[in-house]
From TrEMBL:
<protein>
    <submittedName>
        <fullName>Glycine betaine/carnitine/choline transport ATP-binding protein OpuCA</fullName>
    </submittedName>
</protein>
<comment type="similarity">
    <text>Belongs to the ABC transporter superfamily.</text>
</comment>
<dbReference type="GO" id="GO:0005524">
    <property type="term" value="F:ATP binding"/>
</dbReference>
<dbReference type="InterPro" id="IPR027417">
    <property type="entry name" value="P-loop_NTPase"/>
</dbReference>
<keyword id="KW-0808">Transferase</keyword>
<dbReference type="GO" id="GO:0016740">
    <property type="term" value="F:transferase activity"/>
</dbReference>
<feature type="domain" description="ABC transporter">
    <location>
        <begin position="34"/>
        <end position="70"/>
    </location>
</feature>
<keyword id="KW-0547">Nucleotide-binding</keyword>
<keyword id="KW-0067">ATP-binding</keyword>
<keyword id="KW-0813">Transport</keyword>
<dbReference type="InterPro" id="IPR003439">
    <property type="entry name" value="ABC_transporter-like_ATP-bd"/>
</dbReference>
<dbReference type="Pfam" id="PF00005">
    <property type="entry name" value="ABC_tran"/>
</dbReference>
Length: 78
């Protein structure tokens, strides 16, 4: 399937889903990313936009598994 600009559209790939993910680095008073929930369907294009220090890069690193989320004591993984 192609769009009007002859760009091939595809839904191949993996979807991404985060539910209530938090990342707090050692020595920080507050989390860099707190309670992030998002769902990105396969094939979707997404941009993270925000001011410096708001957690964009950390969120992308967690999606790519370059850093692991912080586990909360009340967090149960199924």
């Amino acid at each position: 399937m192609t769009d009007s600009n002859n760009v091939k559209n595809s839904t191949a790939g993996a979807s991404i889903e985060f539910k209530n993910i938090t990342k707090q680095y050692r020595g920080q008073q507050s989390p860099t990313v707190d309670n992030l929930s998002l769902e990105i369907p396969a094939g979707e294009l997404v941009a993270f936009v925000g001011p410096s220090g708001c957690g964009k890069t950390t969120s992308l690193k967690m999606i790519n598994r370059l850093v692991e989320p912080t586990r909360r004591p009340d967090f149960n993984q199924h």
